[in-house]
Design brief:
The chain crosses the membrane at residues 68-90, 96-116. With 170 residues, the chain is an alpha+beta fold. Strands 1-3-2 form a three-stranded antiparallel β-sheet. The radius of gyration is 25 Å and the shape is elongated. The protein has helices spanning 26-38, 65-90, 97-120, 147-154, and strands at residues 18-23, 46-62, 127-142. The chain has two domains: 18-54 and 136-156; 64-125, no CATH class. It starts with 17 loop residues before the first strand and ends in a 16-residue tail after the last helix.
Length: 170
């Protein structure tokens, strides 16, 4: 049973408390929480909050029929390999020949599917990319009654905790 108003499970929403440190990158905020954990700080009462979210799409190259076919064959082969191994586990007498056959069939279907998909959207998207959501800044927030303890562990003064930059805090 939760005691003293503490909750169990995930908390949905923006956490309340005080910002004890701010960083330009997630690694800095994570290092600050690691430092708190090493000092036996109750890290369950701390949060890392990212602000000013941005969508970033990094272009990895130009898409072509060859790249679409290769990517489809590779992902299909992995899926075929998985199903082939699953078949061997369920029915050991089938032998490992089926694993290779399943990988080849998966590669063929994956290649075919990816080439058809690329053909259908070729003129609208002739490149491959990786998309991610990133924040402009990250804040370490702790409950109000623990804010001074966290600042002491991190070596941050109450007046400087609103500034940004990982070099200040660690």
């Amino acid at each position: 049973m939760p005691q003293n108003g503490q909750r169990r499970g995930p908390v949905i929403g923006i956490p309340s408390g005080e910002t004890v440190a701010s960083f330009d990158d997630y690694a800095g905020a994570q290092a600050a929480v690691d430092k708190l954990a090493a000092a036996d700080f109750p890290v369950r009462r701390a949060s890392i909050v990212g602000s000013d979210l941005k969508s970033v799409e990094r272009i990895t190259g130009r898409m072509s029929y060859g790249r679409a076919a290769a990517a489809g064959a590779l992902s299909g082969a992995w899926l075929g390999l998985f199903f082939g191994l699953l078949l061997v586990i369920v029915s050991p007498e089938s032998g490992f020949v089926f694993v290779g056959a399943a990988a080849l069939i998966g590669a063929a279907f994956g290649m075919l599917f990816n080439v058809v998909t690329y053909t259908a959207r070729r003129r609208r998207r002739d490149f491959s990319s990786i998309a991610q959501i990133v924040a402009s800044s990250y804040s370490v927030i702790v409950e109000v009654e623990l804010a001074n303890k966290a600042r002491n562990i991190l070596g941050v003064s109450a007046t400087s905790s609103g500034e940004q930059g990982p070099s200040m805090y660690l």
